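Entry, Tuesday afternoon. Goal for today is a structural model of the target with MTE bound, before we commit to ordering more compound. Inputs were pasted exactly as handed over by J.K., no edits. I checked the ligand SMILES twice against the vendor sheet because last time a stereocentre got dropped in transcription.
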Amino acid sequence: MADDLPDDSKLTRSKRGWAEAGKFLTGHAATPQGERLPPGQHLVKNWPVLDLGRQPDIGLHRWKLAVDGLVERPLTLDWDAFLALPHEDRVSDIHCVTTWSRYDNRWKGVPTRTLLDQVQPRDEAVAVMLHGYDGYTTNLPLADFASPDALLVREWEGKPLTREHGGPVRLVVPHLYFWKSAKWIARIELIGRDKPGFWEVNGYHMRGDPWGEERYS
Ligand SMILES: Nc1nc2c(c(=O)[nH]1)N[C@H]1C(S)=C(S)[C@@H](COP(=O)(O)O)O[C@H]1N2
Ligand SMILES: [Mo]
């Protein structure tokens, strides 16, 4: 599936170039406790759409989410099983590596911790690889994925998450740059050694902390 990703699209080429040039790096340090807006970011009021240009249309009747890899009890949820899990509401900010940030997004979804409790990660699991229905992948440390603020989101501002923003379900990990928050999520794979996903192969950071300006590798 990942073979036909648009590796040579204009977007991929220019973002790879930014990574090589260190574009948008201010060199200023900041801390999460201090400024709300991370260094090098500016605020937007609208919510931009960013993806590789393919927005898969996944009907709820055929939607599935797998959680597997280094876990004791691999799990595949269909839509009804997902709805039956306890949901929570969270408000968080978005920080995109292309320098826009958007405050106060109201999400509803299932905490990642709820899924992790069900699958029981093995001791060797240190990172996760996220797979989207569009073939996108992104990696992050298991500890970040398990953050109490991380949600598998199905509603934004009280309405079903739209397809362009990754509906029916996307990840939101608010303390990392937004490329880690996989849209149209299909699979959460727990892995024993961190390895790069789509943007990480193209020069982007393995962790992606906005306050540390971890934009590029
Ligand atoms: N499946 C998938 N998830 C993805 C992407 C993608 O191309 N495919 N793009 C990432 C990037 S680079 C960003 S900035 C955010 C954008 O989310 P938005 O379109 O809802 O703003 O989604 C991230 N998650
Ligand atoms: Mo992005």
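Helices lie at 10-21, 79-84, 112-119, 142-145, 198-201.
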